[in-house]
Amino acid sequence: MEKILIDGGKPLVGEIETSGMKNAALPIIFGCLLVKDRCVIENLPEIDDVEVSLQILADMGARIEQIDRTTYAIDCTKVRGGSSSLELVRRLRASYYLLGAEIGRYGKAYVGSPGGCDFGCRPIDQHIKGFEALGCTVRMDGNYVEAVAHSGLQGTNIFFDLVSVGATMNVMLAAVCAPGVTVIENAAREPHIVDLANFLNTCGGQISGAGTDTIKIKGVTELHGCSYAIIPDMIEAGTYMIAAAATGGRLKITNVIPKHLESITSKLCEMGVTVTEGDDFVEVSLEGKLTRTNVKTLPYPGFPTDMQPQMAVLMCLADGISKMHESVFDNRFRYTEELIRMGALIKVSGKTAIIEGKPALNPARVRAVDLRAGAAMVIAGLATKGVTEIDNIRLIERGYDDLVGKLRNCGADIRKESVG
Ligand code: UD1
Q1: How far is the CA of 405 from the centre of ligand 1 (A)?
Q2: Which of 165, 234, 300 to mutate to test the pocket of ligand 1 (most atoms within 8 A of CB)?
Q3: Which atom of ligand 1 lies closest to the CA of 162?
């Protein structure tokens, strides 16, 4: 067990290179299961969730070869369907992509129920609705999900009841090799949906419309190996943009697609932060005071729920009263209790947090209650004079590649220490 210690109150100044996107890397890694060939995946972030996903495939019989720090060759030719480790699968939310990938490859799946961050109830009914529409019978007991297409898979029209990133990608995985045409309506439009479609198309899939709310998939008989580079992580980049603003610093964040950051950039500008966009970088600085704003989280291209806790920290430091409304998940405000320990003035009522800004927070001992909440604690610690201690940092390491190293390079006094 380790904790992070931050002696904060110093502006972050310098350059940070964004790593590959976690939420694109994971479905693409599991998507390799559909391919009886070698796929070389580049720009994978060095994070625990990627390591666990690769381990799950390796345990199932995949040949995994690390080519350099961020590039792996994954060959799933000899994988045994239905053999994933329950213990590993439970460590990840994204392990639900094994369901779609096994259905796509074998016409059946047997996978443990997924784990992941606790944001209240996280059902997978829309994933199941999609698999059933493709011809599967799905059974769930407490531990496992089993799907079988007794008469084979068949392309079809699927209209999701709500916009779900996971269900959209899972149905893409299940349908890419299903005979006929599958049309997903009310699909999620996140950049990682486009990235998964691009990966599958590079392997010979025929998917169009990804990035809009209607995705069309013409089933192909087989996919072939490819080389593919994951897109940059907009949530990692957004986290460092907010860290620059919260510390009154100046950061150039490279290897980004500025268009993916627009909802974050526009809120930062509203709050008085200067954001300059280049072709593949953004530069973020704050000179004056932060001003209040309101934010409502929404599916892409709206403000991402995965940036909600980090943005709340900025609101804690802004002049005036801000409102944060979470409209994607039921319960994503558990971290506010940790910020309150640091002196933040936050009242949560249902899905809205009312945040009264103040010039500074106090250092305290706090916990990462989930991945992005942990990133928010790091930002709060960086912005606060004195030593903030953050426990439970394995949750942060699930999703941030070399967070401590990247921040130290920009002048942060931050280190990891073993506990006990
Ligand atoms: C993914 C991301 C997560 C991000 C979220 C929203 C991964 C591994 N995780 O999570 O980081 O916060 O997208 O951008 O990529 N829902 C249902 N039934 C379903 C599916 C979803 O009711 O079958 C609900 C969820 O409970 C939630 C909302 O729909 O309230 C959106 O969830 P979804 O987009 O599916 O998020 P995840 O795939 O779980």
Answers
A1: 30
A2: 165
A3: 29
DSSP state of 231: P
**365-367 and 352-356: which strand pairing?**
unpaired
Q: What is the 8-class DSSP label of residue 218?
A: E
CA 398 remoteness from chain centre = 10
Establish whether residue 122 lines the binding site of ligand 1, counting it when its CB lies within 6 angstroms of any ligand atom: yes
To test the ligand 1 pocket, which listed residue (47, 118, 162, 164) has its Cβ within 8 A of the most ligand atoms? 164
Q: Which domains does the chain have, with CATH numbers?
A: 2-18+232-418 (3.65.10.10), 22-229 (3.65.10.10)
CA atoms of 64 and 66, how far apart (whole Å): 7
Instruction: Render pLDDT for 159-181 as a digit per residue (tens, 0 to 9).
Output: 999 999 999 999 999 999 999 99
141 or 315, which is more confident: 315
| pLDDT one-digit tens code per residue, 250-287 | 999 999 999 999 999 999 999 999 999 999 999 999 99
Residues taking part in catalysis: 117
Q: How far is CA 138 from CA 30, 104, 150, 158, 190, in A?
A: 20, 14, 11, 16, 27
Single pTM value for the model: 0.97
Contacts of 49 (CB under 8 A, 6+ apart): 22, 25, 26, 92, 94, 398, 399
State pLDDT tens for residues 367-404: 999 999 999 999 999 999 999 999 999 999 999 999 99
Q: Are 414 and 382 in contact (CB under 8 A)?
A: yes
Name the β-bridge partners of 206.
Answer: 218
Q: Is 397 in the pocket of ligand 1 (CB under 6 A)?
A: no
